[in-house]
Specification:
Layout lengths: L5 E3 L4 H11 L3 E4 L5 H6 L7 E4 L9 E4 L2 E5 L4 H5 L2 H6 L1 H8 L4 H6 L2 H7 L6 H7 L3 E6 L2 E6 H4 E3 L2 E2 L6 E8 L5 E8 L7 E9 L6 E9 L6 E2 L1 H4 L7 H18 L10 H21 L1
Parallel strand pairs: 1-3, 2-3
Antiparallel strand pairs: 4-5, 5-10, 6-7, 6-10, 8-9, 11-12, 12-13, 13-14
Helix pairs in contact: 11-12
Bound molecules: flavin-adenine dinucleotide.
Length: 286
Amino acid sequence: MLRRFRLEEPQSVGEISELLGRFGDSAKLYAGGTELLLAMKEGLVHYERLVNVKGIEGLNEVKQHNGAIYIGALCTHHQLETSPVLKQNLPALVKLEENVANVRVRQVGTLGGNLCFAEPHADPGTLLIALEASLTAEKSNGKREIPAESFFVDAYETALEVDEVLTTIAVPIPAKPSGVCYMKFGYLERPSVGVAVVVNLNADRSVVDDIKIAVGCAGPAPMRVPEAEALLKGKSLDEATRNIVQAGETSGRASQAISDLHGAQDYKEHIVGVLLKRAFHSALSQ
Ligand SMILES: Cc1cc2nc3c(=O)[nH]c(=O)nc-3n(C[C@H](O)[C@H](O)[C@H](O)COP(=O)(O)OP(=O)(O)OC[C@H]3O[C@@H](n4cnc5c(N)ncnc54)[C@H](O)[C@@H]3O)c2cc1C
């Protein structure tokens, strides 16, 4: 049962920030409401004021500029799974978005809401970390860039300040020859384990010039795994292929997996390794 609240309808990011700063813990911004209204209906949280951001112009567009894709935080998952710009430049993100939740949630749920809620069993954060995305946080008197890697602090906790609004997610388009892959596993409503790999090869495709690995869902927050990347970066394809099992074990141990309804810690660690191997080969095949 939803308790009474007051609805604010600001017209600019500055106004949103001012409202959030003025009312502090008694107010909350909402976009699609798929997480927030559910939590309020179940009585888990209550806010006296909700700040509706859907009327803010310019935050629901996907644009390409100077080798990067700029995604407005209010873009819904459905917009992203059907975006021609993303299909052309970041098909791995399109595939991820096609498999988020169900069609009803994808129609109204936004990428910004997904990232800012920081629910551990979510997909986009993991891939955005591997892609080295940058998130723009704005408030009435300025803005700052937060690397995706530093945005997720803990379960349900981000680096955003109370009066900051996530406005844009900037994703560099990986230089060619490269491959990008996100894989997830789960049997409940939300994913149990997610792994993302971004591989750059040298010109004749014989050496792994660079690789980014991120794991999510297993632990409280998605994270990059530099120690696994070190086992593959700069190696010939043969050597990297030999090292991939070790990189998977390393990623599993680093994932901070916890035992919960989705599975036991050691099981999740094992699945991280399985997914990493598959994602690596899938990225190479691109
Ligand atoms: C049944 C179900 C299944 C799901 N399955 C998956 C899944 O498989 N994979 C997956 O990744 N996700 C899954 N989700 C999560 C889904 O992606 C999110 O519910 C959705 O993206 C949240 O977006 P929203 O706009 O509705 O957020 P809201 O509910 O409006 O907001 C969520 C939180 O984010 C804050 N917020 C929102 N936008 C901003 C902003 N621009 N700046 C600052 N703070 C902001 C709000 O204050 C609130 O605290 C599932 C959700 C449901 C309900």
